Amino acid sequence: MASAHQQETLPDRGRPHRGDSIARSVQRGVAGLLAAAEIACSPAQVPRHLAGLHRTRVWTGASAARLVSRLHDRAMAQANTAVADYGARSELRLYLSTFPDNTAALAALDAMLRGIHTGKTPFAPPQEQQGMPGRWVTYGPGGHQMLWVSHCQLYWLQGDAETVERAAGELPAPLAGVWT
Hints:
The chain is α+β, with helices and mostly antiparallel strands. Helices cover 34% and strands 26% of the residues. The chain is built from 5 helices and 8 strands; from the N terminus they run H-H-E-E-H-E-E-H-E-E-E-E-H. The protein has helices spanning 4-8, 22-40, 61-72, 102-117, 161-170, and strands spanning 49-50, 53-60, 80-86, 92-98, 127-128, 136-140, 143-150, 153-159. Strands 1-2-3-4-8-7-6-5 form an 8-stranded antiparallel β-sheet, with helices on both faces. It is globular, with a radius of gyration of 22 Å. The termini are far apart.
């Protein structure tokens, strides 16, 4: 026969332990869900290598926000953003913005695509990448561009077509079943 102490130290199998209140079990469950949500939408670190190129420079925080705002000729209400260059001659650039949730990230992507489609930007009209719904390609300053949303994050790659394609294959794929 097991003692009371032994019963309380058994592994948690989703049931309250002896002497544990249901409220405490609910608190643990909610804490676990909040931790999972925080992990799911936490700022990603920019990779050290992409497309066989070493990361050579990174901007984060206010410096990244200023860089992105200059691209738009106005202050942007940016999410947590990082910008990274790859290669000795900055052959590839990654803009990575993290939003509170996928809805906010997709809204930002939609606004960018609509803005480019107006024809008032230096970018060619974006086209959805063949075989990869939710990933968009365009051409403009800095070369080929590819942009998409995955797990609360908006990715924008810039560089030559082959390097951008290789780098995109190393990053998380667009959200499945999502169209803007």
